[in-house]
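INTERNAL AUDIT FORM
Audit reference: QA-55
Scope: verify that the stored structure record matches its stored sequence.
Auditor: D.O.
Record contents follow.
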Amino acid sequence: MLITDLIAKKRDGFEHSREEIAFIINGIGNGTVADYQLTAWMMAVCCRGMTDTETAYLTSAMVDSGETIDLSDLPGVKVDKHSTGGVGDTTTLVVAPLVAACGGTVAKMSGRGLAHSGGTLDKLESVPGVCVEQPLERFKHIVRETGVCVVGQSKNLDPADKKMYQLRDVSGTVQSIPLIASSIMSKKIASGADAIVLDVKTGSGAFMETLDEAVRLAGVMVEIGKAVGRRTVALITDMNRPLGMAIGNGLEMKEAIEVLSGKVPYDDPLTSVCFELAAQMLKLSGLAADKAEAIPMLKSAIESGEGLARLRRMLVELGGDPSYVDDPEKLVSVNRCIPIRAEASGYVAEMDAKLLGTAALLLGAGREKVEDSIDPAVGILMKKRYGDRIEEGDELAVFYVNDETDLAEAERLFRLGITIRDDQPEPLPLVYDVIE
């Protein structure tokens, strides 16, 4: 078998066998497939696509490229949740402890933010002392003790994906549904989850900007889960506006604490989407028959304080200072809080989530490259949502600022991301579809 023949085969639109895909992925590890050859093959995939069967073969080969994690000695159904990335998307920090408070077992390996999209690990590390790099046995111990643990991915987990992602990022092959689906699902499967809930974002702040693309990606990932024996559900959720009011790591951790403390209404968009995701996780865990049964359980976990207690215990087990949970204002201590005021009256008719997320990045809340450092306390606290009525001079948001180097550009991008019109816009759905 020759890699050049396989590149040409995919270039010409033919389907690969399981053995051919295994040959390509094994070649990444043993050095028989050069980077330029892998890039050429991925470009052929990007242009020609893959069948669902090929994508399942690719996912399995990527899982087999490194170590896999065995969680069978942990109690219950191990359920994981993955978001394709967004702005103000604080759901994991709310959903994971809530599900644990309802009796679930959440053992999750997560990632960091890049560009306009926030990362769960960065939000966790906004609490001083938290260490998200934990040995496997320590990770399992925390899950046994608290029912929930979120840590960084093992360095030996899915090495083929790491190489492919590096090359996709610099070769124009990021926007390929088979490559995205196999990247996400191979990591989830290798991490040992029994059941997976996927939050597939669509809109201006998402990788999948159109609903059709998001539905297609979700469908492929659900089929992959089915093919490898993992119970998988995907929700298509809106990312045409920030989900929460906070954009930035400490700000988002503070908002998650407020949700778990019962200080945020149940019909708030962030809380609503968290309930939708958590309900699916409880259903897959066998703890609730359906959403109607799950929602009262989740509300009870908030009202009793058990959801917040699980988050606090997990952070302590990870080395975090619990005083930052008890007094979350400490998470967002900055040099200046700068109000951004409306320059006209009307309704917030459009919000470009990508631009708002990029504005927060310029304040120091995000990173353009993996090696960039971030400031956990800075970011943007929104004061108005999509559809809200505003008057000239009203606060649209507050910038939390330590370094003012890019402040003017951040404000420029922020204002570009907010459109004010005379007419109130039509409501946008929070959840477009559920794919099981």
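Auditor finding: record pair retrieved intact. The chain has three domains: 3-63, 79-326, 334-421.
Action required: none
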